[in-house]
Amino acid sequence: QSALTQPRSVSGSPGQSVTISCTGTSGDVGGHNYVSWYQQHPGKAPKFMIYDVSKRPSGVPDRFSGSKSGNTASLTISGLQADDESDYYCCSYAGSYTWVFGGGTKLTVL
Amino acid sequence: QVQLVESGGGVVQPGRSLRLSCAASGFIFSSHAMHWVRQAPGKGLEWVAMTSYDGINKYYADSVKGRFTISRDNPKNTMSLQMNSLRAEDTAVYYCAREYIESYNIDHWGQGTLVTVSS
Asked: Is the CB of residue A22 less than 8 Å away from at least one CB of chain B?
């Protein structure tokens, strides 16, 4: 049950796009299409942004998109806005009814 | 709307016990698996435990297996986490979270309750 690997930080200017990676193993990210992404502002609960690798819950802007290749999932945020500045976490089902999260990525909007 | 409200956090000495509760509303509680996820101060999220929609099946992270017990009471729309033999490394905000129905994805989260293990 090792944490998924995410970059500690990423940054971009308003209007640009950024991509956050999430690397696991064939036992979690690579073996299941149950990768989700969460946005967490300081002191707040996580917010559900992406599920099943690339699906968006209702209410999440289409600027947020997800994908996966092999053992690495990615979250792309296009048309960056100031309010996107936050921590982002990936999560993957890891089999045998266990789940694993990434270490989190701090997104800074310059 | 979906609401999850945790309670029961506080300061506890190492080796002691604490019981967290989660009150759910705004959805059919008995249809959803439920989870506990924790976040140590300044750290990332860590999955802790899951109970199936009917409370029969329960699963735990290795870090808490044998010490924590998850349970639920569907008629009362509540879930609990009994935490025994607490350690300093269990210090965290504990979130109650709902699983998107039959999906292996966690969707809604409560606001969390802080557990501090310290002498």
From this structure: no
Which tokens sit at B82? 């009994």
Q: Which residue in B62, B106, B110 is closest to A91 by CB distance? A: B106
What is the CB neighbour count within 10 angstroms for residue A50? Answer: 27
B23-35 residue pLDDT tens: 999 999 999 999 9
Strands A64-69 and A9-12: unpaired
As a residue count, chain A comes to: 110
pLDDT in tens, A33-65: 999 999 999 999 999 999 999 999 999 999 999
Q: How many CB pairs under 8 A join A and B?
A: 66
Give, as one character, the DSSP assignment of residue B100: P
List of chain B residues whose C-beta atoms are within 8 Å of the C-beta of residue A1:
61-63
